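Throughout this review, each integer encodes one residue's backbone shape. One record appears below.

===
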Amino acid sequence: MLELILKDYVFIDFGTEILYGSDQIYASNPVRFAMVGFQLMSTTLLEGIADRIRITAGHRPMHPLDEYTEEMCDQDGWYDFYYGIHDLSDGAGNASIEFIVISDNADDNEEMYTIDLSTDERAVMYNRMDEQCRQYLGKSCAELLVEARKRMEGDS
């Protein structure tokens, strides 16, 4: 069921630049790993989740929801959604989808929030990103991560 929902409502925005980078964690020693970041298209599913998270935090939603009518919403704003994959472990994606509030009318303008994902949801998201990258870029996520690793090692 989750795979079908994500297939219908989660899309990489290929009109934006794919970001290659790296991150680092600390265990006993620093471990650096390659990352690839995608901007996602804003869909009703992601917008609805973002609105609920912001309502819980005490902010007005962007879209009518529950008791919020259009007049009560911030109709001039929007959300930018981001998701990343990394080579820290095989077939791994970030533990959350991040979104930024874009609205001069919102008291949380430019704040970042997260939509936390379970282990199963992370696997489904990675597969969804891989499917779209293969279809539109002709490369798998693993191949994109190899490119990110090469860039990262070139920066060292």
